[in-house]
TrEMBL record:
<feature type="domain" description="VWFD">
    <location>
        <begin position="1"/>
        <end position="59"/>
    </location>
</feature>
<protein>
    <submittedName>
        <fullName>Zonadhesin</fullName>
    </submittedName>
</protein>
<dbReference type="Pfam" id="PF00094">
    <property type="entry name" value="VWD"/>
</dbReference>
<dbReference type="InterPro" id="IPR001846">
    <property type="entry name" value="VWF_type-D"/>
</dbReference>
Length: 59
């Protein structure tokens, strides 16, 4: 989880931003960001590589 609302009395909607890493090369220690997940207003937005965006599982 990269960011989320922690205090229930804050005057903002609940949201959570998380990400999934993927290893670049099997012997390398380098990773790249594979997907970013944004949960807000009972919806999930997934930002994928190559500029693909899914909203609730649909493009």
């Amino acid at each position: 989880v990269l960011m989320k609302v922690c205090h229930p009395n804050m005057n903002v909607p609940f949201f959570k931003i998380s990400a999934k890493n993927k290893k670049l090369i099997s012997r390398s220690k380098a990773f790249h960001l594979h997907q970013v997940y944004i949960d807000i207003y009972n919806s999930q937005i997934i930002l994928q590589k190559n500029h693909h965006v899914l909203i609730n599982g649909r493009q």
